[in-house]
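Anyone up for a design puzzle?
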């Protein structure tokens, strides 16, 4: 969230959490931790996604919403895991999603053209 709305510093921030070298794939940069416990995919000015294996913590979605609210222009409303919702950060609109099927995926995609 700290690298939104353009994600220019997202890869550098991911390295602070153990993401090693990243690989350029198409227009995205993809990286993982050495133990495969987290991966990051960043497409500048467009998308940022973080994935991990499933966690048994039932509060993860609420934590995701609180984090979005910390950075968003307005707090997200009435959202549940697996259902995309929109929000605005620094005047830029995004679709957010937390998908818990087959792992944890936290995604934000810009709606800007």
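Challenge accepted. My sequence:
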């Amino acid at each position: 969230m700290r690298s939104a709305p353009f994600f220019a510093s997202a890869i550098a921030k991911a390295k602070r959490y153990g993401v090693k070298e990243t690989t350029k794939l198409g227009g995205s940069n993809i990286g993982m931790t050495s133990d495969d416990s987290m991966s990051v995919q960043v497409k500048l000015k467009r998308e940022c996604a973080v994935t991990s294996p499933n966690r048994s913590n039932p509060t993860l979605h609420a934590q995701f919403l609180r984090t979005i609210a910390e950075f968003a222009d307005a707090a997200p409303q009435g959202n549940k895991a697996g259902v995309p919702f929109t929000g605005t950060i620094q005047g830029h609109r995004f679709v957010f999603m937390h998908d818990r099927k087959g792992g944890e995926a936290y995604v934000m995609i810009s709606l800007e053209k």
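A detail worth pointing out: Residues 10-110 form one domain.
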